[in-house]
Amino acid sequence: MLNKVELLRIFCTAAESDSFKAAAVRLGISPQAVTRAVQQLEQSTGEVLFHRSTRHIRLTRFAEGFAIQAKHSLQQLDALFQQHQAVSNNTIAGLVRLAAPRVIRPILMPVLSALAQQHPALQLDLRLSDQIADVVDEQIDVGVRIGLIRDNGFIARKVSSVGLFLAASPLLLSKYGVPLDLEQLAELPTTALMDKATGRAWHWYFQEGQLWSPKKISFVADDSETEADATLAGLGVSQLASCMAIPHLRSGALVRLLPELDPKPWPLSVYRPQRGPVPDRVRLVFDTLITALSDKEIFPESA
Fold first, then answer.
1. pTM metric for this prediction
2. Which CATH architecture fits 164-261?
3. CA distance linking residue 293 with residue 161, whole number of Å
């Protein structure tokens, strides 16, 4: 039993043909299949659609108007799918919503900017937050996360690792000296990163899962880039993500402290919800981020 869309397509082809045999040739099916489809459609409409002879067919008066409506409806249906087709003439188009932690913004933006330049019809909606995004409520298509992903509803690819480094400016160390252990570190001014969910500063993470709270906080920020700027200005010692600290460590703008306290690096993953077909625009962004964030030159793991 054919569905109604298939019946209409066969009927419209037959309406433009001299015979069911000619319509069958155009459709690549048997004349009997055309006959059965027309009969099924006649039963559905309760109307005779064709005057038939041994050699020709001719539309009935009802079928003439019905054919115009059917053809118009099929054109609208085809247009509906075509406008949502991701690839048209090799053009990627449409909206992709992304979520990522603020700490990787300096690395992420050049990648997304290049992608947007290559595909002008692609619309990117990037939400930066250190809180884990709700992919359902926020309708996220592609995300980047630091830490474990335990949700079985995600397709996730680990692409790199993010360490946490203690760092300070040469200016600050010239004033206070280089700490040799955690006890001496506690005597130095530090920065703090505010957890917006709790309204309190994040703990620092050390080896073996140890949590440590700075004692002499001199500067508090609610985003990691501002905290890094404060560190560079000599306002305090900070615990920075490796991807943010490494360029400054290489240039000498920051000095790494007490590396023996560093915790085990956290995984960096690119993920997307596991829900039905994947539009080409989403697959493009997903694959591009996997490639870019796997590049050790773009996302270094050591200074």
1. 0.65
2. 3-Layer(aba) Sandwich (3.40)
3. 10
